[in-house]
Amino acid sequence: MKTLAIDRFEGEYGICQDLDTKEIVRCKKNSLPPEAEEGDVLVYRDGSIIVDRELTQKRRAQIQKLVDELWE
Fold first, then answer.
1. For residue 43, what are the contacts with CB-CB under 8 A and spacing of at least 6?
2. What is the pLDDT of residue 29?
3. I need a labelling partner for 66 at 20 to 30 A (CA). Which of 14, 57, 58, 59 fits?
4. In this predicted model, what pLDDT tens digit does every residue of 24-57 receive, in sequence order?
5. What is the DSSP letter of 49?
6. pLDDT above 70 covers what percent of the chain?
7. Which residues contact 34 (CB under 8 A, 6 or more apart)?
8. pTM score
């Protein structure tokens, strides 16, 4: 299963990071789910791209923990 995290949007592209290879990938906005936002984790399932809310929440919690540790 391929997983991407949306870093940001630039014009008609979503700039994503492949969470397995760490490669930066440009995805056309119109190929992404309409509800997709910066920070969301996307997965390919059954030939389509969906936002995985569970993985998104886990990733946000991990990032928040790292930020909190920096300021301790």
1. 1, 2, 3, 4, 49, 50, 52, 55
2. 95
3. 14
4. 999 999 999 999 999 999 998 888 899 999 999 9
5. E
6. 100
7. none
8. 0.87
Q: Range of 23's domain? A: 3-70
Number of domains comprising the chain: 1
**Looking at residues 6-34, what average pLDDT do you find?**
96
Task: Give dist(CA 69, CA 18) in Å, integer.
Answer: 25
Short-list 10, 7, 9, CA closest to 18? 7
- CATH value at residue 15: 2.40.50
Dist CA 30 CA 40 (whole Å):
16
Contacts of 17 (CB under 8 A, 6+ apart): 4, 5, 7, 23, 24, 25
